[in-house]
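Morning run. Coffee first, then this:
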Amino acid sequence: MSDTRLPDTTFTAMQDASREEYQTIRWHTERYRRGLPDRILQHLRLLAGETGGYAVDRLTHSLQSATRAQRDGRDDEYVVCALIHDIGDTLACMNHAELAATILEPFVSDQNLWIVKHHAIFQGYYFFQHLDLDPNLRDRFRDHPYWHDCAEFCEKYDQNSFDNAYDTLPLEAFEPLVHRVFSSPKRSIYLPEDSEGHPTGRP
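And here it is:
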């Protein structure tokens, strides 16, 4: 992609735009995509100082989840999922897991996407009873092939990552991973899908 900014378009309705004008839109879309890792890191920093009532702030929890996953030998994609699984805590407090999953969807495997998207329900296994909710809500997904993976994520890297005494790595340690994972999309909403819902890779 050329770094030379194209002139802004002049159309007032999308149906009236020319092919040339949409090259301008495409240029900006690619610019947004290239800047995504830095914006994600910037938003993670906004979680610093916000505890939500927990013993550590939201950034520390995110970093601790990622640190535990990395030290357990998980690959870069999994570690990044652990890092941003709660990125929506303050912006989408009623559906934070779905927000994180939406950000990750073009860039991660189906398995990791499912874990992030459903972790809030699975995490409830550890505390829903204190809110007069059913801690076994996760069992509605018992037959799903990724059930155990999501349960494992919550057990090993989420429910136990509120420890101020833990040797948590700083955000800077994960910056290269964030850039790596978000540099190459694996799927696109603009590509046709096969019978199992996977993009074919052909426009």
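Residues 41-181 form a domain with the Hypothetical protein af1432 fold (CATH 1.10.3210.10). Good start to the day.
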